[in-house]
Amino acid sequence: WWCSPGGAARHEAGAKSRCCCPLAPLRSAGHLASKIGLGILPVPYMAALCANSVSLVLGVTEYGARGRWRRGQGSARGAWWFMVAGLINGGSVLSLNYALEAGQVSVVAPIVAAAPLFTLVFSRFVFRQEVITRQSLLGMALIVPGVILVALFH
């Protein structure tokens, strides 16, 4: 159910999208687990700390399991961008946990689901070669009104 960079699925057309399919239910389960945890221990920064600590352990384990701990591999510039991404992601997880503590999962999750919309728009400006397709525009046309409806009427 998971695609690895060296896997055979990499060569199939559309394999990357199919590999992401199991991630949506997992992410949804993460929202529910955070909401349950916040009901027991209402400390959003603790939820973010625990979630990111587990992610660190999983990432380091996976990286090491693939034998990528070779000396001299990597780039300080790339690592700097990963740290920037970590700061941004940590802030977003913290914000998500504050929203889950204060609100209902059924309201917070659809609003968070609008993240791909921003990713699509931002990537167009950061990576000039990114293409916004008709399918992407259709997706945006469905996402934006849905998020507005959830935010207004819940």
Main sheet makeup: none
Treating each run of at least 4 consecutive H or I residues as one helix, how many helices? 7
Mean pLDDT: 79
Order of helices and strands: HHHHHHH
Quote the distance from N terminus to C terminus.
35 Å
Extended strand count: 0
User: What would you call the structural class?
Assistant: mainly alpha
In helices, the fraction of residues equals: over 70%
Tell me the overall shape.
globular
Strand content: under 5%
Unreliable stretches: 1-13
Assembly status = single chain
Rounded to the nearest angstrom, the radius of gyration is 18 Å
How is the topology of this model organized?
Elements lengths: L14 H6 L2 H18 L3 H22 L10 H27 L2 H8 L2 H12 L7 H20 L1
Structural notes for this entry:
The model is unreliable at 1-13 (pLDDT under 50). The protein has helices at residues 15-20, 23-40, 44-65, 76-102, 105-112, 115-126, 134-153. The chain is mostly helical and 154 residues long. The chain is globular, with a radius of gyration of 18 Å. 7% of the residues are buried. α3 packs antiparallel against α4. It contains seven helices and no strands. The chain starts with 14 loop residues before the first helix and ends with a helix.
